[in-house]
Amino acid sequence: MGRRQQLVRIVRASGIRILRISGIDFSVPGYPNYTLSSYANQSMVNMMNLDDYVSLVVDATVKTGISRQVEVFKSGFDEVFPIRHLQIFSEEELECLLCGEHDA
């Protein structure tokens, strides 16, 4: 099953109805100057390229689009508390140290 078919199944299973796709271009929503490079020559989203558009937006907002900021954060954090010293802690212990105890 192709990605488009999977997306259509997910949309149908969730009860979401896509009535029409119009006026959506290949840029990140809210950032018209942030063009999604794979489709720079194709300006509008349609049912045939919807899954590509969704994948590109996800990549731009939670992966490659923020990788530079994540690296700068890690570098700054490492200056305050070297990350290599944190390797002795588990994920849960780090969460407790950084975020505090959560009431159950």
Question: Would you give an account of this structure?
Answer:
By secondary structure, the chain is mainly α. The protein folds into 2 domains: 60 residues, no CATH class; 32 residues, no CATH class. The longest helix is centred in the last third of the chain and has 14 residues. A hairpin with a 2-residue loop joins β1 and β2. It is elongated and about 50 Å long. The protein has a two-stranded antiparallel sheet. The protein contains 4 helices and 2 strands. This is HECT domain-containing protein. InterPro entries: HECT_dom, Hect_E3_ubiquitin_ligase, HECTD1/TRIP12-like.
- Output the strand order for the largest sheet: 1-2
Report the radius of gyration as a whole number of Å.
Answer: 20 Å
What is the terminal-to-terminal distance? 42 Å
Structural class: mainly alpha
Task: Give the percentage of residues in beta strands.
Answer: 5-15%
Quick structural summary:
The protein has 104 residues and is mainly alpha-helical. The protein has helices at residues 3-13, 50-62, 67-80, 91-99, and strands at 27-28, 31-35. 45% of the residues lie in helices and 7% in strands.
Write the SSE topology.
Blueprint: H1 3-13, E1 27-28, E2 31-35, H2 50-62, H3 67-80, H4 91-99
Antiparallel strand pairs: 1-2
